[in-house]
Write a structure and sequence with these properties.
Elements lengths: L2 H11 L1 H37 L15 E10 L2 E10 L20 E4 L1 H9 L12 E5 L11 E6 L10 E3 L11 H26 L3 H13 L4 H34 L18 H21 L2 H5 L1 H6 L13 H18 L4 H33 L3 H12 L1 H30 L11 E6 L4 H14 L7 E9 L6 E4 L2 H7 L12 E3 L6 E3 L11 E3 L5 E3 L7 E3 L12 E7 L4 H13 L4 E2 L1 H44 L1 H9 L4 H38 L11 H15 L2 H10 L6
Parallel strand pairs: 2-5, 3-4, 9-14, 10-13
Antiparallel strand pairs: 1-2, 1-6, 3-5, 7-15, 7-16, 8-9, 8-11, 8-15, 10-14, 11-12
Helix pairs in contact: 1-2, 1-6, 2-4, 2-6, 2-7, 4-11, 4-13, 4-17, 6-7, 10-11, 10-19, 11-12, 11-13, 11-19, 12-13, 12-19, 13-17, 13-19, 13-20, 14-16, 17-20, 17-21, 19-20, 19-21
Length: about 725
């Protein structure tokens, strides 16, 4: 009889093997499905990037380009609007258009995404539609959108009406699309963080029949079976479950991908076709996961193969070496070494993930030693029989006792790592603006600024708003040893637009933090020295208390030959009038980028929201996997010792005493190990934060949450002891 036939026969007649096989198959299915989902994320972002190449200025050229191109962003109701302005520089018929764009809009026309067209039709024109300055001429197809809800428009121009920021491109869509670096990193970390608990779940499921299978294989060895035959039997028995699980995982991956399309990232959800994986990747994952599972099962046969008598008759465990404690500092050093490599080169991502996986595996080596030490304490200070029973179990078989805690420990590690990163990343959020938070402004130049102000005022008046636009110029100044920023703007406008407190004089004046003489400074390139300075005379400098240390210069006092370094057109806007003010300024700017507080913070807030979302999903998944593996491992521990517990019950040991001992041996190692895992996860989180920022990490009280949650999960998992013991009491020992 070949190994497969033998495994199939055992599976048909042994109910416990059937349960173990089903749980193992489900664990492999979960692991395969999660790996396929996480592996598909870089491909999904790559597909997004390929569809939106036309929205980016790639393929610059000084002359001979096909199109003049400008892009800007706007926002409405917290959603980003991407605007692309184009003007053909050659015959429009000769311009190759990207997928999803059937034609180039004529001057004064625009193509909109379906969601933007719908939004413009339901909102007042003053709050959205009037911003575009073009008439609708069609819709953009799905192949031109980053995500289904994207708000994007393509506006046609002549060369003369293009924004001042326009550049020439060799093609409307050129360059190489690249996957999202952040999501690629998170996907790699997710593979490590979720695959390991999934494999722990598989291992816990296979332990349901570990003792019985070990005795059966040992008997076969004593009966003359060779090590190769025993190994083949285990490989066949585990392989049946692993192969079925891998097939289920591949079959369920489209369902997981469909669910993933509803999880927003980068501003919106996903198209279903984004998550299509190349067949070689699918085959590789479908083969690799079962191979890992079968390999782990075969690796656990050493005692049966080498010393079958010990497997059948029992054995005395050797004390665990203290050398196991060195594995954690070695793993930490290896992780930080790979982290320093990753800072220098993005190609070092794979070694970083490998070292992270090694670091996550290290507690499984140290954990049994800690469990054994804890058992030693119990056996010395016990006051109740349940404590003595728990201590002897922890001392005699620490590896099996720790196995129930392994999944929970990994979940705590992942949670501590995430909750170290999130507050630190949130502390990085912020923005700088020279204007008040309520001000909207657009950059232009001294030549075009008066026309933008005039058109903006016309729009503001048409919408019934009392506010008006103002031109704000900037100059470089020197006052003594300081170089304050100078703003060329009237005092009345400065009080509304700039964060200054000043009492305006009735005549044009210069306002500065001190009364020292001012000089205009002409800055040049880095390779040439600072240009000449012209003293601001004969105007009187009026000292003001300005916390920002800026200088206000009335436009009437500006020398004609001084060139402004920057020119903005700014409009204050608050409440419901803010959207109308934005519309007036956008329409006047003709596609130039309008800047505001919400625009500057919007991208940061969106990224942080994405990170929070994937963190919650990852931690919930890891916690569920850890809790399930702990519950299964605890139940398996009871089933492995049915004969022992049956004998104790027959001798008169109360079930509640045994249940208390089982809960202690299942929960206490987890409670101790979660503290260490939390500290280790915090160290890793600090290291990963250093990969993206030079700031000092922020530590939140929420760091204790994974440890508390892990302890609760361990206690809940330990609660399966009582039902398992009742099942043992109900079955006669002869069944064993």
């Amino acid at each position: 009889m070949n190994p497969v036939q033998l495994a199939w026969r055992v599976l048909r007649v042994d109910r416990r093997t059937q349960v173990s096989t089903v749980l193992t198959a489900l664990g492999v299915a979960v692991a395969t499905g999660l790996v396929l989902l996480l592996t598909s994320l870089p491909y999904a972002t790559q597909a997004r990037a390929e569809r939106t190449l036309w929205q980016e200025a790639t393929g610059y050229t000084e002359s001979g380009g096909q199109v003049s191109f400008a892009s800007s962003e706007d926002q409405v109701d917290g959603q980003v609007i991407t605007r692309v302005d184009v003007a053909p520089l050659v015959d429009p018929a000769g311009i190759e258009l990207p997928a999803g764009i059937d034609r180039l809009p004529a001057p004064g026309e625009m193509l909109q995404s379906p969601e933007l067209a719908h939004l413009a039709s339901v909102k007042p024109a003053a709050e959205l539609a009037d911003r575009f300055g073009a008439r609708p001429a069609g819709l953009l197809g799905e192949d031109a959108l980053m995500y289904p809800e994207q708000l994007v428009l393509l506006v046609g121009h002549t060369q003369e009406t293009m924004p001042t920021s326009a550049v020439e491109l060799t093609a409307l869509a050129s360059g190489e699309a690249r996957p999202d670096g952040l999501l690629t990193l998170l996907a790699g970390v997710g593979v490590v963080v979720l695959l390991v608990p999934s494999l722990v779940l598989v291992a816990s499921a296979s332990r349901l029949t570990a003792a019985r299978r070990e005795r059966r294989l040992a008997a076969l060895r004593l009966a003359g079976a060779t090590p190769a035959q025993v190994t083949a039997m285990v490989g066949a028995e585990t392989g049946l479950a692993a192969v079925v699980g891998a097939v289920l995982g591949v079959a369920m991956s489209p369902v997981l991908h469909s669910l993933a399309t509803w999880v927003p990232w980068g501003g919106g959800t996903w198209f279903a076709q984004d998550f299509i994986l190349p067949w070689p990747i699918i085959v590789l994952v479908a083969v690799a996961v079962p191979v890992l599972v079968v390999g782990a099962a075969v690796a656990g046969l050493r005692r049966v193969v080498n010393t079958p008598l010990m497997a059948t008759g029992g054995h005395t465990s050797k004390p665990l070496s203290k050398g196991r404690l060195l594995i954690v500092p070695v793993a930490v050093l290896l992780f930080f070494a790979s982290l320093s490599m990753a800072k220098e080169s993005s190609s070092a991502l794979l070694p970083l993930l490998a070292s992270l996986g090694f670091l996550m595996w290290s507690p499984t080596v140290v954990g049994p030693w800690v469990t054994s030490a804890l058992g030693g304490v119990f056996t010395k200070v016990w006051r109740k029989p349940s404590a003595l029973l728990a201590g002897r179990r922890l001392r005699d078989d620490p590896k099996a006792a720790y196995r129930a805690s392994a999944g929970v420990v990994l979940a705590v590690f992942a949670g501590s790592m995430a909750l170290t990163l999130m507050p630190s990343l949130e502390s990085e959020a912020g923005y700088y603006s020279p204007y008040r938070d309520s001000v909207l402004y657009v950059g232009t130049d001294a030549e075009h600024a008066p026309a933008v102000v005039e058109k903006a005022d016309e729009g503001l008046e048409r919408y019934g708003l009392a506010v008006r636009a103002a031109q704000v110029g900037q100059v470089q100044l020197k006052q003594g040893e300081n170089y304050p920023q100078g703003y060329v703007v009237s005092c009345a406008d400065a009080r509304v637009l700039l964060p200054v407190s000043v009492d305006c004089r009735s005549e044009p004046a210069v306002y500065a933090p001190s009364g020292a003489a001012l000089e205009f400074v002409s800055w040049s390139t880095e390779s040439t020295p600072q240009g000449p300075a012209e003293e601001l005379k004969p105007f009187e400098v009026t000292p003001v208390a300005a916390a920002t240390g800026i200088v206000l210069i009335d436009p009437a006092l500006m020398p004609a030959d001084i060139e402004l370094s920057n020119v903005d057109v700014a409009v204050p806007g608050n409440g419901h009038a803010r959207e109308s003010a934005r519309t007036a300024l956008l329409a006047a700017a003709g596609g130039a980028q309008v800047i505001s507080k919400e625009m500057k913070l919007g991208e940061q807030n969106a990224e942080l929201a994405d990170l929070r979302r994937v963190t919650v999903i990852g931690l919930v998944t890891a916690s569920v996997l850890g809790g399930l593996s702990a519950a299964i491992a605890t139940a398996g521990s009871v089933m492995d010792r049915r004969r022992t517990f049956g004998a104790l019950m027959a001798a008169g040991t109360p079930v509640h005493t045994l249940a208390r001992a089982l809960r202690a041996e299942a929960a206490l190692p987890a409670l101790v190990a979660t503290v260490g895992a939390g500290a280790l996860g915090t160290v890793v989180g600090v290291g990963l934060f250093g990969l993206v920022s030079e700031s000092i990490p922020v530590f939140s009280p929420w760091l204790a949450a994974p440890i508390v949650l892990g302890a609760l999960v361990a206690l809940l998992a330990a609660s399966v002891c009582s039902p398992a013991l009742k099942r043992v009491r109900a079955e006669p020992l002869a069944d064993e």
